Amino acid sequence: MVKVNLLIDDLIKTIAENIVKDVSDLEQIILIGIVTRGYPLAIRLSAQIGKISGFNPPVGKLDITLYRDDLESKNNVIKLKETLIPTSIENKIVILVDDVLFHGRSVRAAIDHVLDYGRPSKIKFAALIDRGHRELPICADYIGTIMETTPEDIIKVNLVEIDGKDLIEKNDKKD
How far apart are CA 23 and CA 130, in angstroms? Predict the structure, then answer.
């Protein structure tokens, strides 16, 4: 793996600035992080929006395990994590947050799960990194950065809250 010279806090700041520019009533926003790394990113994103605007949107977390379309390939080992939606999502702007957008399958699963909690006015998506190679017609509304990759490359986002450090790594499979 090769370290990528991108600062995660700078990418979060970029996303936060774009959300503040895009949403006229920030009190309509609920940030929901896709477990595992989307949740701490959503917490940081809420804090950054607060620094810019004076309002910290509520933050929730979403375990999409049971909504995935690849459960059969997981060898029947399923480990559920906590889902927490802090307030009603009815007629709110839900912004799903995740670390890497790749095929789009996690986002699809997250949308399905969110809709079990109610009917938001909009669902948007924020990704720290968009690496392309979609299998589904999914795109991010807010992106920290776009990374050029091949489908075989591996992008690993390390977060201090989970991994003890903030670091983005790329394993280039061409080498």
Answer: 21
Q: Which of 28, 37, 17, 82 is nearest to 58 (CA)?
A: 28
CA 63 from centre of chain: 12
pLDDT tens string 27-78: 999 999 999 999 999 999 999 999 999 999 999 999 999 998 876 665 667 8
Question: Under 8 Å CB-to-CB from 10, ≥6 apart: which residues?
Answer: 144
Domain locations along the chain? 2-171
The 10 Å Cβ neighbour count of residue 12 is 22
Q: Determine the Cα–Cα distance for residues 121 and 19; give it in Å rounded to an integer.
A: 16
CATH class of 2-171: alpha beta
